[in-house]
Specification:
This protein has 415 residues and is of the alpha+beta class. The chain has two domains: 259 residues, Aminopeptidase (3-Layer(aba) Sandwich); 66 residues. 27% of the residues lie in helices and 17% in strands. It has nine helices and 14 strands. The strands form four sheets. Strands 1-2-5-6-7-11-8-14 form an eight-stranded mixed sheet, sandwiched between helices. Strands 3-4 form a two-stranded antiparallel sheet.
């Protein structure tokens, strides 16, 4: 993990990745790194997304997070804003007691969509003071080196409006293959500089991580499921020659399922707020009947200024309990409908997306170099796989073994 150099004798290789501006060391994260990782992800929620505490700790246990540490002592203090409405989290970049402090991390796995040859980067973050010093590039290369031997591709999803982040992936040799629509609720800055919401585009980047590899076929998922959006999204290919920053069509996730009619609603009132009972419903009638019963139960005369009343009748109590149950069921039905986004897109649309992906793959494989021509890599950030195949077949030496002599050979000769 400490040696991050690249073989400069690799044929047709890009310039080797230089050392970081600040001496760093890269290691696997431990549980003690969780506060740093959590604070750094909360400082950039719009760019990094969000990983819950349980998910982050699980990734740490699985060894999927690498941390970069600055080995040179820097007594300046850094501030990472832990998010809107939360106090800033302070940590020292180096003290006399601790010569190495974390300055960045990468979260990724070497298996994506059950493919052993494809890994994915979920999060990459560096402390602001150490950005543009190749810390992120070394983290990325270390992640490639730490992956399983059979992993040949790495990918990531990056929002189109994050221009600097997309330029980083481009500089690292990733190529844009496809795109999908993000959350319709997420606000972002469009090309005109306006802060809008709805239809944020995610770009799918991919890279062949083995240096000199020109044969591993490109691939992208035709449909993604789950995630922060909680809905299936169709992925479409980016036509060769089209830049990742160009406008892309918006394919919004499915809308909410129509709300079921609450108890007591008429046909014309279906889909109205199930929380608010209809005027004249059973709950309101029960209240009126209970109030009328109390008034009727009050005696006309007073006893020393006190009045005597009687409780509601069993019928009224049963009506109130039934009204509460119906209101509870209506509330649960509404909550279920709000969560019940359509988990599957239109089957015809899914079939079209798969066919489009397969045709795109055939077109790309029939023209080698078509995708590679879009790469804008600056450095050879990749993994060097040594060639273990012998150049010449081993020489076979035939050994002649003489027949062992009999022990009584001398005696026979003498006779």
């Amino acid at each position: 993990m400490s040696d991050l150099s690249i073989d400069r004798h690799e044929p047709n290789a890009l310039p080797a990745l230089p050392e970081a501006s600040t001496p760093i060391s890269i290691r696997k994260a431990v549980m003690g790194d969780y506060p740093f990782i959590d604070a750094l992800q909360k400082s950039e929620p719009r760019k990094l997304g969000f990983q819950f505490e349980s998910a982050l700790k699980k990734r740490i246990e699985q060894g999927n997070i690498l941390v970069a540490e600055a080995t040179r002592v820097n007594r300046e203090q850094s501030t990472v804003n832990s998010g809107e409405g939360n106090p800033s989290v302070h940590y020292s970049l180096g003290t006399g007691h601790s010569p190495a402090k974390p300055v960045g991390y990468v979260l990724g796995v070497d298996r994506y969509y059950k493919r052993d040859d494809l890994g994915i980067i979920y999060q990459m973050a560096v402390v602001p003071e150490y950005r543009r010093s190749l810390v992120a590039a070394h983290l990325l290369k270390a992640k490639f080196e730490d992956s399983a031997y059979g992993c040949k591709l790495y990918c990531c999803w990056c929002a189109q409006d994050l221009v600097e982040a997309n330029k980083f992936w481009e500089a690292m040799g990733f190529v844009p293959l496809a795109f999908r629509t993000g959350s319709e609720k997420t606000k972002f800055v469009n090309a005109q500089g306006e802060k809008v919401s709805g239809g944020r585009i995610h770009i799918f980047w991919q890279k062949r991580i083995r240096l000199g590899d020109t044969e591993t076929p490109w691939w992208y998922p035709s449909e993604t499921s789950g995630g922060a959006v909680g809905a299936n999204r169709i992925a479409l290919p980016i036509p060769p020659g089209t830049h990742w920053s160009d406008a892309k069509p918006v394919v919004l996730p499915p809308e909410l399922v129509a709300l079921p009619a609450a108890a007591g609603e008429s046909e014309g009132e279906k889909g109205s707020n199930a929380k608010t009972p209809k005027r004249g419903g059973k709950a309101e009638k029960a209240k009126k009947e209970a109030g009328a019963g109390e008034k009727q139960a009050q005696p006309t005369g007073g006893l020393g200024g006190f009045s005597v009343g009687f409780g509601p009748s069993p019928e009224q109590i049963e009506a109130e309990a039934q009204a509460k149950q119906e209101a509870k069921r209506a509330k649960q039905a509404k909550k279920k409908a709000e969560r019940a986004r359509l988990k599957t897109n239109d089957p015809k649309l899914c079939a079209f997306s798969r066919e489009l992906r397969d045709r795109w793959q055939e077109h790309v494989e029939a023209q080698p170099g078509l995708i590679e021509s879009a790469a804008q890599a600056r450095y050879g950030v990749g993994r060097l796989i040594e060639n273990t195949t012998p150049t010449q077949p081993p020489e076979v030496i035939e050994e002649v073994i003489d027949e062992p002599k009999r022990l009584d050979a001398k005696r026979l000769d003498a006779a």
